[in-house]
UniProtKB/TrEMBL annotation:
Species assigned in the record: Paramecium octaurelia
Name of the protein this chain belongs to: B30.2/SPRY domain-containing protein
Domain annotation B30.2/SPRY: ranges: 1-174
CDD domains named among the record's database cross-references: SPRY
Length: 174
């Protein structure tokens, strides 16, 4: 896994206590699969991203394309809706952005599909959130004080039954 200079690779998995019952966790809680097709449902990471640092993680799309990927505050842990539908979450959503809305957002980047790798670059020094698709940086998606002032968590939200993702973890090279 290659990652941007100056970014930390957080070690985390999806938190069963903060994952919708409409999602199934597997592979050491690194994979998430939707078991129900009625609306978005969220899974939240089990480790806090602390202000003052830069973090990077990657998500592989196993199935589907209408999956929201990003970060949220601990107040944004709504399991049976998308974490980014309220003011506590920020996400990329297949060629668009989502924050405090379940239906509209600015165009951003390109659409993704099964097999694509989505990189999440959270800069909690400058308050910026950026994404990459298959290693291609899509630019700054969000820039605001909240992204540098409060602890945040990784988050994903698929919509359709059997949609799935895998959290790719860094392996230290010897």
């Amino acid at each position: 896994m290659e990652y941007p200079d100056g970014y930390l690779l957080p070690l985390f998995s999806w938190d069963p206590k903060r994952t919708s019952t409409k999602l199934k966790l597997c592979q050491d809680q690194l994979q998430v699969m939707a078991t129900d097709g009625s609306g978005f449902k969220s899974a939240i990471g089990d480790q806090e991203f602390t202000p003052g640092y830069k973090y990077y993680y990657e998500i592989k799309i196993l199935k589907g394309s209408l999956i929201k990927i990003g970060v949220c505050t601990k107040n944004g842990l709504f399991q049976d809706q998308a974490f980014s539908d309220n003011e506590e979450g920020w996400a990329i959503y297949n060629g668009e952005l989502r924050h405090n809305s379940n239906s509209s957002g600015n165009k951003y980047g390109k659409q993704y599909k099964k097999g694509d790798i989505i990189g999440v670059m959270l800069n909690m020094i400058d308050g910026q959130l950026s994404f990459s698709i298959n290693g291609e940086n899509q630019g700054i998606a969000f820039e605001c004080n909240e992204l540098k002032e409060v602890p945040l968590y990784a988050a994903i939200a698929p919509i359709y039954k059997e949609d799935g993702i895998e959290l790719l973890m860094a392996v230290r090279e010897d």
